[in-house]
Amino acid sequence: MKLATLRVNGSTRAVRLDGDRLVDLGAADLGEFLSQEDWAAKAAADAATTYPVEGADFAPVVPRPSKVVCVGLNYKNHIQEMGRDLPEHPTLFAKFADCLIGAADDIARPEETAEFDWEAELAVVIGKPVRRAKGAEAEAAIAGFTVLNDITCRDWQFRTREWLQGKMWDSSTPLGPYLVTPGDLPGGVRPELEVTLSVDGEVMQHDNTGDLLFDPVVLVEYVSTIVRLNPGDVIATGTPGGVGHARTPKRYLTGGERVVTEIQGIGRLENTVAKDGAA
């Protein structure tokens, strides 16, 4: 099934896609909904309140996750284009809820950067609390998958050996539009899906999530060893080759571009890079 957080009359509602309607799930957003123990059963139930899909205004699929853990260097072709060796362990950094925007929101381009880059990513959404999860427990903790664009200020990212300051800019990271449960995707909790990103209609990235070095289950195991994962938490699994920073000549987002990030079976982000500065 496909779940989302919909903006409605100045607030938000957790919803399920049902044909051309969005069914209200009785919670303010998807993070709140996933915190319920029996959320999967409730998600399948009928409800009186529905909204049309046409014209829907999607918030970030989880608006206020307790954490967004991101993985760098997780596709072989991207590692090679960035001139690095294959890692022995996942490379982790973080984003924050204030970074997140909806599937059609404008991306705020900070005036402080001259190297604003795109990164299409499959994101894992957690559906139950876990710590030090292994095997089947890690698999069961995955509520589903969504689409994320890990927009990056490369000049800030590489100021130091730590990447955080290049990754955590306000209102920069589209997330959504839908969470799709593993049973509805080829490969289940280890999905094999086409990932594509285009800028003004030109394809920049194209790969398959089956090529991930560290698959979603491994990432849940690894991250939950370090810190507990809560319902609604997000793990961004990394980007394939084709980022602007690795091109010759380098290419960056300067403002006004239309960036479309799409993952097969999940959905697409369609965002315009704001010309008029940062949030």
TrEMBL record:
Q: Where are the bilayer-spanning segments?
A: none
Q: Which GO terms describe its molecular function?
A: isomerase activity; metal ion binding
Q: Which GO terms describe its biological process?
A: carboxylic acid metabolic process
Per the UniProt entry, the signal peptide is: none
Q: Which SUPFAM superfamilies match?
A: FAH
Q: Which UniProt keywords apply?
A: Isomerase, Metal-binding
InterPro entries xref list = FAH, Fumarylacetoacetase-like_C, Fumarylacetoacetase_C_sf
Ranges where the Fumarylacetoacetase-like C-terminal domain occurs: 67-273
Could you tell me which PANTHER family the record lists for this protein?
Answer: FUMARYLACETOACETATE HYDROLASE DOMAIN-CONTAINING PROTEIN 2A, FUMARYLACETOACETATE HYDROLASE DOMAIN-CONTAINING PROTEIN 2A-RELATED
Q: Which family does it belong to?
A: Belongs to the FAH family.
The name under which this protein is listed is 2-hydroxyhepta-2,4-diene-1,7-dioate isomerase
Name the species this protein comes from.
Nonomuraea aridisoli
